[in-house]
Write a structure and sequence with these properties.
19% of the residues lie in helices and 22% in strands. It has 6 helices and 11 strands. It has helices spanning 3-12, 23-34, 71-74, 80-90, 169-174, 239-243; strands at 14-17, 49-50, 95-104, 111-114, 126-129, 132-135, 138-143, 153-156, 191-195, 200-203, 211-219. Bound molecules: 2-oxoglutaric acid.
Length: 259
């Protein structure tokens, strides 16, 4: 994170890490998803999710989701391209809170705009103090295909993580037609990092290829968004990857970094 990256994240509430993955990494992730023979995505948001880390609200329904589908998924957990941005956004000791995939077919509906600084939502905040940013739940969305204004996908109201007024109904209703909502162009292999304090959602999908994104949601060390924690997958993990599965606590937490 150089000074420009910090400035832009502070004013926008999101950033794009361009071409974080090599093309063969994206191809392999897509191949592993194909191998699952998932049902066709539906037109409703509820039918456009896959591979989640179990139920957030049911302790007895905890599975490892797509992290059980092979090392390429687990390599994304602490991919070198995201670790410095996440340290800047969340501080050291952040943890994987939950994760799921999004797949959409031509015609899959939008997801309403949500998040935003006002009204205040305790686990989803953006705060600046003592020369540092502090954030709650933060998302790394790995794009396995191209998304953007022509086709749909992630959209947001840039800067709304600092909003002092609730998002007006004209913007909520108008969504991507409103001039305030941006659907950034994001290439396959790039990652969008955004604070959940940002007003964001999904623009409807209108492409002849399937949208695929892998959403990893991280919380700061001391916090959990949901009542359950994702289980460690049954594949070999590095020590640092294992640390990301630590339960929420702050005191004496191991660093995720060598320096
Ligand atoms: O389409 C996206 O990438 C945003 C999805 C989202 O905000 C959500 O699943 O809560």
């Amino acid at each position: 994170m150089n000074e420009l990256d910090k400035y832009l994240f502070d004013i926008n509430g999101y950033m794009i890490i361009e071409n974080a993955l090599e093309q063969d990494e994206t191809t392999e992730l897509n191949r592993l998803i194909d191998a699952q023979n998932l049902p066709e995505p539906g037109l409703a948001t509820s039918e456009a999710r896959f591979g989640s880390s179990g139920s957030l609200f049911d302790e007895n329904n905890q599975t490892a989701g797509y992290l059980d589908w092979g090392a390429p998924f687990n390599n994304l957990l602490d991919h070198p391209a995201i670790m410095d941005p996440l340290r800047f956004i969340l501080g050291d000791g952040f943890r994987i809170d939950h994760y799921y995939g999004i797949y959409m077919k031509d015609g899959t509906e939008r997801l309403r705009l949500h998040g935003g600084n006002t009204p205040f939502d305790p686990p989803e905040y953006y705060h600046f103090q003592d020369g540092k940013v502090f954030n709650g739940l933060t998302v790394v969305a790995w794009n396995l295909c191209e998304t953007g204004p022509e086709v749909g996908g992630f959209c947001c109201v840039p800067g709304s993580h600092k909003a002092n007024y609730p998002c007006p109904p004209e913007i909520l209703a108008g969504h991507e037609q409103s001039g305030s909502v941006v659907t950034p162009h994001v290439d396959a292999g790039s990652a969008v990092i955004f604070t959940e304090a940002l007003t964001h959602g999904t623009a409807p999908w209108v492409a002849d290829y399937q949208r695929r994104s892998l959403l990893f949601k991280y919380s700061p060390a001391q916090q959990s968004w949901g009542p359950s924690y994702p289980p460690m997958p049954g594949v070999q993990l590095t020590d640092r990857q294992k640390n990301l599965f630590e339960k929420p606590y702050f005191a004496q937490r191991a660093s995720l970094f060598d320096d």
